[in-house]
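User: tokens in, sequence out, please.
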């Protein structure tokens, strides 16, 4: 499906059109994710007025999602779990030229989780390691996607993509079979195999695959460097290029890849950085 049709779908779903101007500029309006300036969080930065959408990049040159209107623009900056504490800077290009904008990252202590899984998914064979390296290179190309956001911004608060209990939260320091691994980069929702998974925002399917660690996986692109990932699926009822509306079913929960039982791993990415999905949930923190 062509990109202009994708933009039209998102624009039709937009809640901004029916929101008064003051509502989208208050500190905790219901359209943006929560501001949480910690590793794994989001810095919501006011850019002020501009006749055209400013362009914002991180210190590494990665483009940042910008939403709003000529009265008030806002940048949503994903903060890596590995981010150092202290002052960080983004570069803003707008009607007044190029400026630097600072924000501070504060400490957050994440819990530890110990898991028992199949030994072959911890100590990889040469064949499995080679497969993982190939898959990681492909996944990194998906993570680097940046498609232009809609001209008219859309609400980013989400409902959970499937019903169920949150069985593991973002940022947990994970120990598999006694060996430390990377912190948990998403939210796990425990649900029976076959439970439908729905799109929490309008988006386009940009990857469908079966991966060593993640199992059945789908990536959705929501525009502006905002992507979401769904892993351990038993069924992927979509294909690359499909355009989904919010609430549309596209997959089913499973227990594929490195898992201890059926659940959905849900990840959210901003400017190539995995951030806490809970910050996007309606009425959640």
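Assistant: Sequence out:
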């Amino acid at each position: 499906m062509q990109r202009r049709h994708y933009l039209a779908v998102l624009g039709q779903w937009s809640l901004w059109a029916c929101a008064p101007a003051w509502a989208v500029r208050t500190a905790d309006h219901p359209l943006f994710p929560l501001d949480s300036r910690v590793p794994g969080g989001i810095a919501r930065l006011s850019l002020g007025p501009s006749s055209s959408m400013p362009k914002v990049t991180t210190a590494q040159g990665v483009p940042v999602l910008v939403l709003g209107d000529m009265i008030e623009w806002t940048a949503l900056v994903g903060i890596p779990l590995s981010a150092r504490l202290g002052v960080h800077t983004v570069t803003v290009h707008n009607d007044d030229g190029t400026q630097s904008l600072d924000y501070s990252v504060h400490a957050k202590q994440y819990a530890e989780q110990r898991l028992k899984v199949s030994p072959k998914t911890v100590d990889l064979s040469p064949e499995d390691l080679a497969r993982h390296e190939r898959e990681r290179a492909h996944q990194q190309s998906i993570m680097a996607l940046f498609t232009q956001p809609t001209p008219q911004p859309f609400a980013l608060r989400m409902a959970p993509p499937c019903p169920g209990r949150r069985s593991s939260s973002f940022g947990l320091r994970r120990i598999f079979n006694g060996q430390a691994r990377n912190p948990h980069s998403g939210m796990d929702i425990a649900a029976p195999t076959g439970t439908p998974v729905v799109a929490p925002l309008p988006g386009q399917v940009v990857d469908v695959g079966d991966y060593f660690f993640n199992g059945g996986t789908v990536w959705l692109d929501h525009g502006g460097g905002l992507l979401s990932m769904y892993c351990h699926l038993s069924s992927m009822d979509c294909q690359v290029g499909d355009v989904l509306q919010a609430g549309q079913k596209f997959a089913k929960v499973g227990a594929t890849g490195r898992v201890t039982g059926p659940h959905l791993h849900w990840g959210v990415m901003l400017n190539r950085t995995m951030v806490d999905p809970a910050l996007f949930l309606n009425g959640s923190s």
